[in-house]
Amino acid sequence: MRGVPKVFLLLAAGALLAGCAELSAPPSLQASFEESSAAAASGGQITATLKVTSSNYSGQIRLTLVEPAGFTLMEPTAPVPITATEQRVAVRVAVGGTVPPASYTLRFRVDVQGLPPAFATLPVMVQASTPSPGAVSFSAPTSLSLFVGQDAEYAIAVTNGTASEITVEAQLLSVGSALTVTPSLRENAVAARSETVLRFSLRPNAEGTGELVFRVRAFQGSVLVQSREVRATYTAVRYGVFFEGADFRGLASDEAAPPASATLSYRASGGFRGLVLLQAQAPGWTLAPTSLRVDQDSGTFNATLTPPPGTGPGTYTVPIRVEGYDFQDTFTAQVTLSGFTVSLASPNLVLAPTAVLQGSITPLPGFPSGALFTLSLEGPDAGRFTLGANAFSVGNFSTSLSALPGTPPGSYSVVLRVTAAGAVRKLPLNLTVQAAGLAASVEPPSFTAYAGGTASLTLQLTSQGGFGGWVLLGVRDPATGAAVPWAYVEPGAVYLNPGATQTFTVTLNLAPSAPVGVRSLQLVVYGPQVQALPITVNVQEPTFQIALSTTSFTIAPGASATATLSVTTQGPFTAPITLTLAGTGAGQFAITPSSLDPSVPVYGLVLTASTTATPGAYNLVLTASGGGVTRTVPITVTVP
Hints:
This protein is an all-beta fold.
């Protein structure tokens, strides 16, 4: 069994027996010669027919002549395929010219694929032969059946019937391109009345037919005593089972992927019958089935290729190795894996205690249409969380992701598992579960207010971690952390609904004693945690402003003029305001009213000239005083 690894022989035998376990009986093979005996002269040839009877067996046999010495098996020298339960094989044996006349028993060993060897015997009678002086004869097969890639032997038997030693040489003259012959020249010395065999190794490289031509010459010394051409036609075929390239189709998956499938076609050549082993040669890929029983010249069968877990969508090339008795081959399978992609708006979610998980699902070409995509969570902490809707079609999806009650605040890592049509995609999620609490903000953070006055603020509160309840409010000094005695807020508490975001209007009240200037304060929110929101208030004194509708008057002695006096206050200004008139000649004039209530915004101011007023123009100042604030308005009075 030339060229077949011992390990493979054991595997092939085991696989053959395993494949035959389903048959009604184990395989068996017997061999015997149809002839009860044969006869030939020394230097002649014996022909016989070997009958091979088999049961539940298909494969090859090799024939070897074990004993006795002096006999040479001329054919068959190549493996013989067994294709029928009863098959006959032509056998030809050369009898050496020096074999003495006698009765012999030729013992042949039949090597059987997957079974113990069989043996066959043939009784022969060798008769005396008296070659004529100077007779030299050659014999060799005239036709050969060869298998591509398998070595065979070509033997030229030479019988020297002369009384002298001769030298015989065989030189290769021509051979087809599909066949390699080694060596190209063989030379032996042959003793008187003796024989030799010139052996050549044949190895077909490709299928085809051709002719071997040798020139065989015999010399006594330097004298040529015999010369002839030995010709043999040959047919070389590939032996084994051969596959064309296969196209597998399947789906990619982040887990154990579903197998890709294809229908494979094979061709059995050289009469091969038997078991072949199949194996994917790419790391991690698994082919099924792993063996195939071949009992016909061609056929098809369904096969699957399973990719390694995590193999992404794409096209892959996977070599497939095929091994059988006395042959091996490799063909290439192309595997196309379709699938789908999943993208997330964000893999990082904050749960308070619920967040919205958003993303999109895109099927790739070849993915089954109408598939439903199912979402689930996995990982050690997946049991702490629940998904809302979990089944979607292609396109965008949105669902809630919630932490179960009692889930401790903190960071968690889980895996989003998306499944459809047997394919799986996995994406990591980073989840942060917030403790029960709230988020707070205030607007505006900086403003102006008057001592004794108020300022309106907008407070926004957002529930976190499912918190809900009363929230207390206060004002404190950030430098000391103590409450501010001259400021407070109303209301002092607000109610926040669980899971809600609410806006409240809060009034900051300043005492009249509030210090004037820019003051930094904190609006303190007392929830599950204390939050201090910085605010800056520019505290100003309450004040007022006055304005006249006209500042130019013409008044005759003893007469009056009027104007509109407007009073504007800033802040909670409530002190009485006193009006006076000052300047050169001011004593000749009188004003009414002389006292103002700051809550009254408009007055009618009457300016009266005395009867003794001296004609002329007077530049006077109208002064308004109250609450420590003084305002002046220059006026011009003309007495004609």
